[in-house]
Amino acid sequence: MKQLSLALLLATTSLFAATDEQIISYFKGQVPQNINISVTERTTLKDYNGFDMVKATLSDGSQSQVVNIFVKDGLMFPDIVDLKSGASMKQTLEQAEVEKALGELYKKEDPAHIIAIGNDKTKKTMVVFSDPECPYCRDELGNLESRLKEFNIKFILTSVHDKSALEKSHLIYKEAAKAKTDKAKIEVLRKYFDENAKVSESVSEEAVSVMHELRRKYLQGGLKGVPFIIEESALLR
Q: Which terminus of the chain has fewer Cβ atoms in its 10 Å neighbourhood, N or C?
């Protein structure tokens, strides 16, 4: 399903009543007839008197798009922005949702799928979701030694590329598990993140499937791309 046009929300929209039924009715008048609309969640914002955040889902039966909007006194808003700080309430809430969803997965993650580099208890730990065939991830890996001066780093490989990237992910995990030092782990990462890296041995379809499932669950959990870097404490709340 193509991204639904939500330009209609760029301005404040007046509704006779900000009930779920009114919101659904309004959206139905703005999208194609084959799109189903439902209000899946409604939360009262304690720090914003009178405002509710409403989560609406628009679906064509095969794909869906979730839209967060804000309603108060019969009015609908695309966002609430603090003019002093510039903070976007929508971005803040959506980020919290992503952290919560990814955190639930991370807490249950198989340790074999987490490559830990650095173990300094005085430092914070950053979790990096990465992909051996992603050029931006390759650039980020170039900053690893610099980051390690301030943080411990944990890698989870969630490739957004094709089969060869999944094969490289499997080989990275396989070889990193045998590495005795952080330096050796970094060498493994750099070996397969190199843009000229080749898959040097046969990787079974079962192993590829495991890597595919690893990325699938995080992407479905809200991961929108790689590299994605987040403080581990945000995932463990």
A: C
Residue 67 · residue 55 · CB < 8 Å: yes
- Whether 172 and 143 have beta carbons less than 8 Å apart is answered as no
HSE, side-chain direction, 13 A CA sphere, residue 42? 13
Question: Residue 135's pLDDT is what?
Answer: 96
Q: Looking at 45, 80, 115, which one is the last position of a domain?
A: 80
Number of domains the chain contains: 2
Q: What is the pLDDT of residues 166-190, one digit of tens each?
A: 999 999 999 999 999 999 999 999 9
Q: Same domain, yes or no, for 74 and 120?
A: no
Phi, psi of 197 (to 5 degrees): -65, 140
Q: Which residues pair with 127 in a beta bridge?
A: 154, 230
Domain with 108, as residue range(s), is: 102-235
Residues 54 and 107 in one domain: no
Q: How many CB atoms lie within 10 A of CB 53?
A: 18
- Tracing tokens 């999208």 back to the chain, one arrives at 31
